[in-house]
Every structure is written in structure tokens, then in C-alpha cells.
Amino acid sequence: MSVPIPQPPTIPFLGNVLAIDKELPLGSFGLLAKQYGEIYQLNLLGRIVYFVNSAELVRELSDDKKFQKIVPGSLNEVRSLAGDGLFTAHADEPNWAIAHRLLMPAFGTANIRNMWDDMKDICSQLILKWSRFGPDYVISPTDDFTRLTLDTIALCSMNYRFNSFYSETLPPFCEAMTDFLKECNARANRPSIVQALMTSTTAKWEADRKLMIDVSSEIVKHRRHHPIEKKDLLNTMLYGRDPKTGQGLDDDAITKNVSGDSSSHVLSGHETTSGLLSFATYHLLKNPECLIRLRKEVDDVTQGNPITLEHLAKMPYLNAVLREAIRLNPTAAVRAVVALEDCVLAGRYSVKKGQGFAINNHEAHHDHKVWGEDADEFKPERMLDGKFEAMPPESWQPFGFGMRACIGRPFAWQEAQLVLASIIQTFDLCFNNPGYTLEIKQALTLKPKDFYIRATLRSDAAHLLSTPSSSLLAPKAAGQPAKAQVEAEADDGTPKPKMYVLYGSNTGTSESFAQRIASDASSHGFKATIGTMDQSTGRVFTDGPVVIITASFEGDPADNAAQAVQWLEQGASDAEFNGLKYAVFGCGNRDWVRTYQRIPTLVDEVLEKKGGTRLLPRGEGDAAGSSFFEDFDAWEAEMWSVLTKEYNTVSKKVEETLTVETTKSGTTRASELRQPDTRLGTVTQNRVLTKPSASGIKRHLEFALPEGVSFRAGDYLAILPVNPPELVKRAIAHFGLSPEEEVTLSSSSPSTLPLNRPINIQSLMSGYVELSQPASTKDLQVLSTLTDDAATKSTLEGLLGDYKASVLTKRISVLDILEAHKDIKVSLSTFLRLLPPMRIRQYSISSSPLADPQHATLTVSIVEGAPVPGHRDVPFLGVASNYLARLQPGERVQLMVKPSGTQFHPPSDLSTPILMFCAGSGLAPMRGFIQERAKQKESGREVGPMYLFFGCRSPEEDYLYSEDDLAEWVKNGVVDVRPAFSRASEKSEGCKYVQDRIWHDREDVMKAYNEGARFYVCGSRKVATGVQKVCIDMLKEAEKLDDEEAHRIWEKVEQERGASDIFE
Known about the structure:
Radius of gyration: 31 Å
CATH class of the largest domain: Mainly Alpha
Helix content: 25-40%
Strand content: 15-25%
Oligomer: single chain
GO molecular function: aromatase activity; flavin adenine dinucleotide binding; FMN binding; heme binding; iron ion binding; NADPH-hemoprotein reductase activity
Number of helices: 37
Distance between the termini: 55 Å
GO cellular component, one term: cytosol
């Protein structure tokens, strides 16, 4: 019996066109595949196309006898340039067959090997460029790989030099080709009436086409008039004869195959290869253990000698890296075929002759049934030791299939191997923005978007450059040197010992600690340089102490420390750190008991094991505890004591290294944009979720995401907030300033403040410092030195003596203390130095991209605290939550999507039961999970059971979404909600808390557990601890286990089937 092929809802005349993102159609195709499954149909302006997404169906369509390649809309537009060239010809056009038979031998193994010297020529130009520009230069690898592959295909196939590396801009031919291909993709998805109105766009498209044809015609004419003895593709096309028909190609056909092959040869051999190299570089940087393994293979094989063709055959891991990169991101992700006869596909779907199919190789390459549950992860090992050869037939198709597959694959592969091996042999690479997560840009092929790196010669001297840990603060411009931080100079002209301050930080805390040390270094006699841990990869500093501040994130290093940690473990030799003296402070959270302080401990122990000298015991701060900042203050004081003795320096009070100069006192406010508009999202909705009687407020916010930004259910939205206006006014008033007064800051130490340019006080206080951060013990000590009043000194000493209860718990800030004690004379520069920099806040996204891929929602608790008599006469306001609470629709917000842990996403197998435990705004990610399955069920797919255990106060206060979304999903059988009302337990089966409801419903929980359910927890540490305890108790009761065995089993369940997100 035939199964209907699902289709999204249509719009009259347009069909499903509006369901496709015009900038990134592949993203829309992927979301539709996630919602509708292995096959769905779209009505594209009246044309019905079946989209195939599973490896099983792709395998069936890979039969040249039943299905034939067709030229889809976007490639059909390219025919205006390439005509019946190799990649744009229809099946019945004779020139394709002639060109195919002529050129196939030219791409044979022997001929490709003969192109080695030309390939190396161009490769050396890229290596030379990166070497000469140095480690401060921000590289766009996609641009440089585009230059490289364009120049390579032109030199090898036509003996023509574009000389792309001798110009700051891309050659006109390349720019024209890129714009032409992008417009071809857009034209294919526009209604003809719309296209007819876009006269200027059409004129540009025609001009690009003409430029490429003119250049190609000149190349052909030049070769006709100046023939050379070289067996390249151009000579083959000019003088070769088809062995079957005896025919050759006329100049018009040759020009089309040159211009078309500069968008077909060049599209396959150039676009495909540049995309492959870009994606491979990204995945290696994101997976430093793979980078280290590849570097070792290259070094072992080459032994420091120039790479030869023979070397490549001895590099299986290099081959595996490229295969895996192009599996995850096939640059030509979709191909089209047509049914040659009526058939039943996979025994389920009836297909009529002439039906067109779009084969989504991107989805098929991520098929969990073929590639496993880790199909979305970069694992080159799956391509080694015969595993690749053992894959089901046609599971890997990045170069197409059959007679119409890419004939330039051997060329592209040899070039990619040479270039990647040469880069790895020569450079240490790092992200320019350590937090970068892959975004895609799409023309006819795919490439990474906004992807920038830096490259340092592996033999270079040590060089550090400070890069913010948050990409919201990172520079974006490619092709420009990043601005170095200014190092402190000795006041008396005498040299100071160097100090290297390294940090690994995702949220900014470790970075702020590191910058505080770097700022204070001058007063202790050191000349400090600050940078990320990744920027130190492969380098050993022996001319001064190395201070490392780093964190663990569920046992993993920070984004900007991953490469360094992998190098420490796997790349560094046993005596690598002889002569290095170091100190480590670790930031962690005891809520993650198994992985608490894992990375700081590992770094500390490996450095010592491999020759380093530990200057003082590793410091440790628990972000979940009450003495986090106090512990750092104590460790920092001990560190300076040790360092001044070790290096014979003198700690002394120095003049302020931060100076503030008033440059303009005006009556108008300057607009100060701190970040590019490309990362600005727009508020589209902000509403209160709680009832008027609720004791706390929770809100639902929706944001239109920046163009090209995507997310998954379970990801975070990171927000860069500003301080509440009331707080900013208090700070400005305390210093007797006008909000519109402008100042210029300068500093001889590293700083996150805006230096050496005018900025108004309003912008400075609003966006650059944390005004409400509780004062640290060090802050209290500094303030005590700035007053002569005995009563004030006594008060400050009392706060120090009872720091946790008097300062931390009550959230008493430096500003609070200054307002309460006017006798403390603090300059604006000292005040700014005491405050930590503004940091991003992460919130779990509470929606699914299947509901709306361009919008993401948050579910947020608004944080407010009571006044504290004697210290703060006004309520405490949480910075980020109050910033969000006051946003109005239409306002722009600086934000970014940050991926959650690999486990904190809905399972790929829709039949897997899901158990969700949460309280309050911890409902956020669970709402996204439920919404995702609701959309999948709505599309006709079978989904497994979902159980939501949700804790709140009462149905009359804060039972979030209970009257709309949750009610609808319960009604539709998507989720079973089990509430626990702490102030109305009689309405929740007598259960006050989540753990009580779990125990009450333990039979259902154990049934889901035995069926392979996945467990998700989101909430406070108290919620997580309660859930863990009750689950262990259930195991003890159900399985008759003792306490130790139940703990062991539950720990394994958490590792294999569980994921948690704990917040305070």
C-alpha cells in the first residue's frame, strides 16, 4: 500500500516558496526534513519536487537506469553562461558527451600527478602570504582558499595566472563569478513577475556574465595565437577529438567550457575544494584532538621536509579528515534527478514517470541509521581502518553519482590534501573568535560564513594577543591586524620581568580575573601580556611566570582553551615545559560533581609532569559557593607574594595606570555602538507569564535573530545587557558628572574598557562595567585605604570579617558602599578599575526552530532584591533580567546563539521516551523540546511519550504556559504534564516539589526508564540534587539495590542518557 508523501501547508499561487529561506535554502530543507522525515514534497511555484533525506532513499535514487540527472533551477540559470557545458548540459545534448569523453582522460591519475608542480606553486603563494602577514593578521580562510583554488584550476588547466595573491581584492573574474552564482541561486527561487521588476539586479548579473565570457574568450584566443606544448585541459579542448565520433569542440563550446568551467570546472574544482578546505579547517579547530593527531601524522611522514606527492599516500588520517569534513558539510549539498519510469520507492512511495527529486546529500550524510547517534559530530576515525569501505553503498556522495558525477574529483582531492597538509606542517592555527560556531552561506555551493582565523609560524617566537572570550566582544573584520593590548612600561626605564597571563573563559569570569592580574602586574614589578590559552598552543614561555586562569564546562575546556588543553595532553613532549614557571587558578561549579575543576587540575598536573615548576598550589573557586570571589582574592594575594620573592621585584603603589580625561562636555548624547549590526537581534514580543498575584515575575520574550543565525532546541541565547538606568544614574550622580559628558580613557595595562577614543559617561557606565557586582574582599581593602574616617574603616573591617553574610548574600556593591560612606574618596579611574567588565548572560532558548527558525524565545525570571538598610536604600536589580524585562518590541539587542552540550538536545530517534524535570524558568528548554515533537507529530510522524515534571508555586501564580501552549500539547497527546505546586500541593496529588511528584509517579517514571528514556534536568542546584536523590531511591526500590550500587547505576544513566542545565 502506497504511503502519502507529506507536504507543508501551501499558499495559493506561491505554494511552499515562502517556507524556504532565500539566503540559506539548505537550512530550510534541513528543518523540513527534521519535521517531516525521510521524504516530503514542496510546491515551488507550481512545480512539485520530492525532497529525499535518508541514505536508504538516496541509495535507491542512485540508479542511472531508473533515475536520470536533471539540471535544477539554480544550475539551469548558469546555462546562460555555460550553455551545454559539462555540469549544465541536459542528458540529451551531444556536446556534453563529447566534452566528457575528451576530458575524462585528462583527469586520470597520471595526468593529475603531472599537475603537482603547478599545484605546489600556488599553494606556496598562500603559505607565503600567511607567513608574511604574521599572527596578528585576521585571515578569512574562505576568501584565501577561493583565491588558491581559482589560481590552481586556471594554472593547471589553462596555464593562465590570475595572480590572486598579488592583490588585496579578489580578481574581477572571481568576484563576478561569485556574484553571478549567488544571483543564479536567487533567480531560481523568484517568481518571474518579481524577476522582471529587478532590472538593476539583472543588469549586474548580465555584466558579470559578460565579464567572464570576455576573459574566457581572451584565454582561448591567446592560446590559439600562442600555442604551447602542454597536455592541459585547454589544449585538450582545442585540439582533441572525440574517440567515438571524431568530432571536436568549436571555439564557442570551448569558451563556454572555459567560462562555464570557470563556473563549472571552477565550480567543482574551485568552489568545492575551497569549501572543503574551509570546512576542514573549521572542524579541526573545533576538535583540537583531531588537529593534534593530523599534525603528528604530517610531521612523522615529512620529517620536516617539503611535502611531496609520495608523502600524501602515507597520510591516511589526512584522507580521513577530508572525507569526514565533506561528509558533514558536502559543499554541493543537493542534486536533482527525474524518474524515467513509474515505480514504488522503497516499497512505500508511489512515483510517476517524470517526477523530479531533490536529493539532499547533507541530510543523508547525517543519517543516524547509517552514521550512528554521533552522526552530527566530526569523527575522522569513522573513515579509517576499512570502516569507510564497509559503509552501505552510496552512503557518501559529496561528488555526485554515476556518469554525471564530478570528473574533477581526483584533481580536487590531490589539491586539498596538499594544501591542508602544508598548512598543518607550517602553522599553528586558532580561531580569531574563540566562540565561533559554524554558520553557512549558500550560493550554488556552501561555505562557512564569517569564519576568521589567525596563523602563527610554528617556529616563531612567542606572541600573545588578547582576544575577548565572548564573540559578542570579538573583532570581526578580516584582512586587518587585530589591535594588540599595550604592555606596561617600567616607570624608571629599568626592565621588568615579563609575565604571561592566560585564560580559558566562555562567560567572561576567568577572563575578568586574568585581566585584573594583568592590570595589577605593573604595581608588582612585572610587564604583563594577556591572551587566551589557545594562543599559547605550541609555545613555552621561560622568560617570566605564566599565570593561568581557566574553567571547566561540564568537564570540557572553554572554547578558547580547547586546543591548548589537547596540546598539553597529547602534543607536548615529556620534557616540553622545562624552564617554565607557572601558577593555575581554576573556576568551577560543584554542581557538576564528577567534573568539578577537571580542566584546571589537568592543566596544573600536566605542566608539572612535563617539566614545569609550580610556583604555588593551584587555586580553586566554586561559582556555586558563597566565597568564589573571596577565594580568588586570597589566591591572588598569595601569588603576588610568591612572585615578588621569586623574581626579586618590589610591590609598590603606582600611579593610576588608567587615566580619565574629560574631552567634551556637551548637551547631546553621542550614539555609541559597541558592536556590528550584524549581531543585533530584534525584540518582537515581551509579555508577562505570571499572574498578578505571583510573588515573582517571569516573562516570555521573542527575538528575530540576525540573518544567517540558526539554533537547535536546547541551545542558549547569550545576551550582552546594559546596566539598569537607575543604577547608571546613581553612579554618574555620585561622581558629579553629566550623562552627556565625554571622557577619553587611556591605560598602560590590558583593559576591556574603550581606550583612546571619546565616549560619553552614560555609555561607559551603561555597557562596559558591572555596577551591581558584589564588592570583592580586595575591593573592600582598597576602599579602606581611601578613607581617614575611623567609623568607616571599622564598618569595612566588619564587612571583611563577615564577608559572605554581609556582602555576598546581600549583594552589596562598590557603588552601594561609596553612597553609604561619602568620606571614601575614590577617583573615577579607581572606581572603573575596581569593577569587572560587563559579561554576557546565557539563557536557555524556549522554542524549537521547527516552529520558527528565524525567531527564538526566552522564558526568564526577573531578579529583584530588597533594600539593605545602612548599605542600599533602593532594591537590588538583576542586570540582565531587568534589561530584558524593559525591552519593547522593535528594540535591537546584542545577542548570539551558543550551542549547549552535545547531550542537551532532543534524541534523534523520535520514538525515544523523554523525561523532563524542571522548576520555574527551568521550563525553558523543555518547552523547546515539547514544541519540536509537537511539530513533528503535527506533520504525521510517530513520536514517543514525553513526561514533564514541573515545579512552581501554584496554578494561580506561576504555572507557566498552562493555559495556552502546554494545554494544547497535552490535548494533542504530545506531552503528559505532572505539576508540583509548593503552595497548593492539594492540587498536585499532595506533592510540593518536583522530586515529590517523581516519587508519587515512580511507576510511570520507571516504565519510561526501562524503555530507554532520556532524562533532562533544568533548574537550581536544589532541584537537581532533589531529582538525583529521588531517582536513586527509585532504583533502590525497583531493583532491590544497596545505596552504593544504585549511585553507580544512576551515575552511568546520567552519563549515557541524561543531561542537565543547572543555574542559580
